[in-house]
Amino acid sequence: MKLHPILAVALAVFVAPAAVHAASFEGSVRMKMSQPKGEAFEMTYRMKGGLMRTEMQTGNGSMATIMDLGKKEMIVLMPEQQMYMVHSLAAAGAAVEKQASDVTFEKTGDTEKILGYDCTKYISKSKDGISDVWVTEQLGSFAGLGGMAGGGKGGKGKAQTSGWEKALMGKDLFPLRVVVKNQKGAEQFRMEVVAVDKGPQPAELFAPPAGYQKFDMGGMMRGMLPGGKR
Fold first, then answer.
1. Residue 167 gets which letter from DSSP?
2. Where does the record locate the signal sequence feature (predicted)?
3. Could you state, in order of their start, the residue ranges of all structural domains in the chain?
């Protein structure tokens, strides 16, 4: 079944660091991600006020997620099933905040223009390794990549939040380039923003499409229990 891998990544994206305030930037950001021994793929971020949407095509199918920072909830769209799920994010932030205690995030004096945006290089260190992170203050906050940046650590089927993602939690910093290295200095993961399109985003992109049905996990589970089909 294709449903479970897609949902696992979708949940991780927004259980990962997410600012609780609205980003000031409105537009879309397209990023390319790659690993030394894996195929590259792209993800598109769309931002509008306190709303964020990600779109991704993986080997398991297409995926789109919408996060409402004001309501602290996430909508997972399932295009192949013409359905959507709603998840509360209220408890997720506290859990990730605890995990961030083992991460350092140091600003360097290096600066660079990337796609016309002023970027500063930070170095993030954690037990998993070291990451060079080039961030800008001009694109609002970042909601994370979930297990996509694990540098191969997600092999056990669990999407993991990387150290640099934890470090960006709650900050108005958006990464335009990230290079993740292990303790020996070997590159494990690379993320680079390849396009930024600043401009109004259609409101309909931040709500389930017409005709999509809400998937009720609780109702499905109750229906599977003896005497639960009522």
1. H
2. 1-22
3. 3-224
CA angle 96, 54, 95 (to 5 degrees): 10
| DSSP-assigned letter for residue 173 | -
Range of lowest pLDDT (58-67, 95-104, 209-218): 95-104
Residue 24 has pLDDT above 80, yes or no: no
Secondary structure element (H or E) that encloses residue 99, with its range: helix 92-99
pLDDT at position 229 is 55
Alpha carbon of residue 44 to chain centroid: 10
The model's pTM? 0.75
The CA distance from 162 to 122, in Å, is 15
CATH class of 3-224: mainly beta
Alpha-carbon span 118 to 70, nearest angstrom: 28
Contacts of residue 145, Cβ cutoff 8 Å, sequence gap at least 6: 13, 16, 33, 43, 162, 165, 191
Which residues make beta-bridge pairs with 181?
130, 187
Encoded tokens for 218 = 């609780």
